[in-house]
Amino acid sequence: MSDAPKLTSLKLPFWMDGKTLTENGTEQEPAMLRNGVQSFWQRMRDWFLWPLTQTDPLSCNLELLDLLAWERGITRFSNEPLWLYRKRVAFAFVNAEDAGSTQGFINIMSRLGVPVLAISERQVGMDWDIVSIELDDSIVSSAALLGTIIQDYGRTCRRYEYVSNKATACYVAATECNNDYQTLTARAS
Hints:
Elements: H1 29-53, H2 62-72, H3 82-90, H4 92-98, H5 102-111, E1 116-121, E2 130-136, H6 143-153, E3 159-165
Parallel strand pairs: 2-3
Antiparallel strand pairs: 1-2
């Protein structure tokens, strides 16, 4: 929209500008007509440029956002906040490119506001196809979001498990502990 050419201001000749030939300096008919035509063409310009402003998923109209989401294969899950839906639509292409790798999965989660603490694959004592994703429990509020991310961008033939961690304060009291003992031996004679 900023690259679009600006609408030039209409300039009337001095005998039609509505101010030059008047005695008190008030606008007359030609100047009012020029202002009306100028505002009409400005409105027409805004109407023509409006579709160009609707291509950004982070700021477009909700109906057009749904069309962009359909185009990019994104389905809004129930009770999904609008800001998250907009982010999922905006990053759909980049997320599709990053899908399938461990670092790409970490990038996808961080773009959507869910930081991953660690991803562990092929762990000892577990089946080879289980992937453990360690998340901060205080940040992840929606299991539907995690399920959708796994469904859309997770590896095929893998099972995912979430390991949630929550940092908490732990207080331990330390006190002095001592012991005194004696050994007495008694003999019978």
